[in-house]
């Protein structure tokens, strides 16, 4: 028995250490010239037989008739392949949790209802084995988002090839998150609507948050403070619109309250979830409120909604002119983000509109569109190369990826286990 146990521990150790050889890439040294590829810019433009040049981590040129590469440039012939901007995963606990059932690996929440001073970035674990599974599907950036309580803290955008959280930071503390108390029991959960006393409890919590913001507003209007309040200081940039308030809610009633909060305090509000956003597109457009749609591969919220409503919502927002992007929520689930976009493209979005929903639109909502989200000169070289349509799981095989010009390792634990057991059973 002791021998068997020792063998199991040894095998587990070998498997665990295998991924330790996947380490961050060094800075780009040579100019890289990609040629003969179909380039999907991310802003709706597609360049057939195009070329893309990047140097020192920045895109320097993209087009169909670029000058010949410099003599010292590294030339990659991508004949028949597709080039995309690196995909961006919003609203994820990636790096904050590793095994949901193991409490010691979860670090995405703090005790208490209102904790805006908590920074999710400092808890981000760059050694998570889940990160590499996202990169293998073309996801190169992520918004690391806290959970738990009503205001659990701030989120940051990270790039997915780093030694530590300082290296990973792409945009630091760009948003504060507010999880609105539910006002109605969703149809995909058993039971009837929430009782009146439960609704009253939810409204009391909402008023508690409103009171917090009012007090924070008064605090931040003062020049000097006798006592420092870290929570009030943490939301200062909401009032100057340097940061955004992500309000997590799905129902129309909840989103109407979110609009009221935006009007009362002048916040730059983003609806996170927005399952019923298709019902109030005019109001969202009028108030310039963006939406992050979560988990399109799901049942509708209400019983009388069309069963395919989650698939159609993206196209309805696009038609109404509401800025939106797609998220798959969770952490390991984010690897399927490109296929969520593929589903949206079969329910009303064009292929390039669906691509924008996981690249440029996301960058705009997260406030990083000046540096990433599309393949344009001057932006970071966050680039994904695929053998086929990145939004089609049948044809998408990511062959190369670059983050700020650095070619990243696309190996992951899944691939390693696949090779391990293919070898064990003599499969070719």
Automatic annotation (TrEMBL):
Gene3D superfamilies assigned to the protein according to its UniProt record, in alphabetical order: Metal-dependent hydrolases, Urease, subunit C, domain 1
Signal peptide: 1-18
Key words of the record: Hydrolase, Signal
Domain annotation Amidohydrolase-related: ranges: 344-408
Record-linked InterPro entries: Amidohydro-rel, Metal-dep_hydrolase_composite, Metal_Hydrolase, Metallo-dep_Hydrolase
Molecular-function annotations in GO: hydrolase activity, acting on carbon-nitrogen (but not peptide) bonds
Official protein name in the record: Amidohydrolase family protein
């Amino acid at each position: 028995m002791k021998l068997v146990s020792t063998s199991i521990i040894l095998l587990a150790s070998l498997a665990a250490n295998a991924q330790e050889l996947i380490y961050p890439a060094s800075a780009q040294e040579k100019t890289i010239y990609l040629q003969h590829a179909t380039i999907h810019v991310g802003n709706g433009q597609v360049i057939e037989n195009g070329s893309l040049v990047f140097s020192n981590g920045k895109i320097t040129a993209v087009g169909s008739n670029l000058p010949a590469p410099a003599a010292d440039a590294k030339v990659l012939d991508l004949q028949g392949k597709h080039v995309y901007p690196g995909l961006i995963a919003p609203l994820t606990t990636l790096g904050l949790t590793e095994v949901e059932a193991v409490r010691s690996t979860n670090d995405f929440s703090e005790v208490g209802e209102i904790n805006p001073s908590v920074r999710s970035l400092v808890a981000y674990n760059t050694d998570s084995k889940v990160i590499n599974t996202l990169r293998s599907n073309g996801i190169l950036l992520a918004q690391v988002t806290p959970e738990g309580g009503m205001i659990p803290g701030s989120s940051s955008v990270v790039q997915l090839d780093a030694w530590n959280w300082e290296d990973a930071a792409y945009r630091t503390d760009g948003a504060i998150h507010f999880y609105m108390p539910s006002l109605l029991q969703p149809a995909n959960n058993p039971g009837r609507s929430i009782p009146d006393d439960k609704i009253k409890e939810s409204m009391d919590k909402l008023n508690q948050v409103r009171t917090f913001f009012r007090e924070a507003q008064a605090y931040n209007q003062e020049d000097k403070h006798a006592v420092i309040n870290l929570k009030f200081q943490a939301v200062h940039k909401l009032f100057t619109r340097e940061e955004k308030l992500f309000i997590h809610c799905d129902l129309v009633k909840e989103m109407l309250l979110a609009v009221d909060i935006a009007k009362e305090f002048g916040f730059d509000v983003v609806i996170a979830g927005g399952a019923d956003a298709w019902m109030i597109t005019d109001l969202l457009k009028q108030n310039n409120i963006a939406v992050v749609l979560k988990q399109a591969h799901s049942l509708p919220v209400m019983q009388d909604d069309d069963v395919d409503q989650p698939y159609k919502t993206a196209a309805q927002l696009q038609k109404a002119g509401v800025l939106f992007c797609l998220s798959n929520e969770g952490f390991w689930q984010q690897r399927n983000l490109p296929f969520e976009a593929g589903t949206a493209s079969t329910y009303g979005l064009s292929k390039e509109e669906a691509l924008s929903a996981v690249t440029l639109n996301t960058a705009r909502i997260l406030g990083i569109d000046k540096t990433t989200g599309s393949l344009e000169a001057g932006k970071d070289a966050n680039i994904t190369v695929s053998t086929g349509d990145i939004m089609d799981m049948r044809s998408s095989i990511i062959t190369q990826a670059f983050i700020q010009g650095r070619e990243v390792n696309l190996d992951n634990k899944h691939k390693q286990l696949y090779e391990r057991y293919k070898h064990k059973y003599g499969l070719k």
